[in-house]
């Protein structure tokens, strides 16, 4: 079934972890994420917009932009011509490639992963990273470069600030609704390679789980 690319985008909602459907759904096992389109083991979440579900833990942050750790997990970019679904696919594939190249061992590798992810986000030199990372790094650099345009237009790249503003906006006013709609047509969410469950970053473990399901090279 073809993905409905326009159905999956930033979905401003108040953070409510106790709400029905806020947690994982279904039985453990493989499924195809309705957003990024990738085969995924384990954790699946219902989508609360007009698209079909379920979605993977990474794509789930699109509908939780006010979650407690969102500022460490994602950033806003401006890219009207690139669907949010494509951004999620590219990001997840790039992250899987990085993990596979840097080492997909147990928790001891998390420090290596975090240094690499932080270097990409900050624009630091990544010349010492393995050559096999070149394509993945290029993709992530290109995506991160679009934060500058988001900041120019919004004066922020914070998903929480944007979501809060949209939730507080009087969308019944035609001019405000038109402006908000135009904004959402161009704004995108870019995952940063971290995903918190409480104080614990569970994203490296998730990426390793994805790799265990499909260990073939993702980007070369």
In short:
α3 runs antiparallel to α5 and α3 (84-102) packs across α9 (203-213).
Indicate the overall shape: globular
* Helical content (DSSP H or I, runs of 4+): 40-55%
Q: What is the CA–CA distance across the termini?
A: 27 Å
- Low-confidence residue ranges: none
Largest sheet: 2 strands, antiparallel
Give the H and E element order.
EEHHEHHHHHHEEEH
- Order of strands, main sheet, comes to 1-2
Put simply, the count of helices is 9
Number of strands: 6
Measured by DSSP, the beta-strand proportion falls in 5-15%
Mean pLDDT, to the nearest integer, reads: 85
The tally of structural domains comes to 1
Structural class: mainly alpha
Radius of gyration, in angstroms, nearest whole number? 17 Å
Notable features of this structure?
220 residues; mainly alpha; two-stranded antiparallel ribbon; 6 strands; 43% helix; globular
Topology (SSEs and partners):
Elements: E1 31-32, E2 39-40, H1 57-60, H2 70-73, E3 74-78, H3 84-102, H4 110-122, H5 134-145, H6 147-154, H7 159-168, H8 174-186, E4 187-191, E5 196-197, E6 200-201, H9 203-213
Antiparallel strand pairs: 1-2, 3-4, 5-6
Helix pairs in contact: 3-5, 3-9
């Amino acid at each position: 079934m073809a993905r409905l690319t326009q159905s999956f985008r930033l979905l401003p909602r108040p953070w409510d972890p106790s709400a029905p459907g806020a947690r994982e759904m279904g039985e453990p096992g493989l499924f195809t994420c309705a957003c990024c389109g990738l085969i995924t083991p384990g954790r699946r979440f219902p989508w609360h917009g007009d698209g079909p579900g379920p979605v993977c833990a990474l794509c789930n942050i699109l509908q939780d932009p006010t979650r407690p750790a969102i500022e460490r997990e994602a950033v806003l970019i401006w890219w009207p011509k690139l669907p949010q679904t494509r951004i999620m696919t590219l990001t997840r594939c790039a992250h899987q490639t990085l993990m596979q190249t840097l080492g997909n061992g147990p928790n001891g590798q998390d420090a290596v992963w975090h240094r690499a992810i932080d270097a990409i986000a900050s624009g630091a030199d990544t010349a010492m990273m393995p050559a096999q990372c070149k394509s993945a790094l290029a993709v992530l650099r290109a995506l991160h470069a679009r934060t500058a345009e988001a900041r120019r237009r919004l004066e922020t790249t914070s998903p929480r600030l944007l979501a809060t503003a949209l939730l507080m906006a009087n969308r019944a006013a035609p001019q405000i609704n038109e402006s908000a709609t135009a904004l959402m047509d161009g704004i995108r969410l870019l995952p940063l390679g971290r995903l918190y469950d409480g104080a614990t970053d569970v994203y490296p473990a998730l990426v390793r789980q994805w790799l265990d399901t499909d260990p073939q090279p993702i980007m070369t």
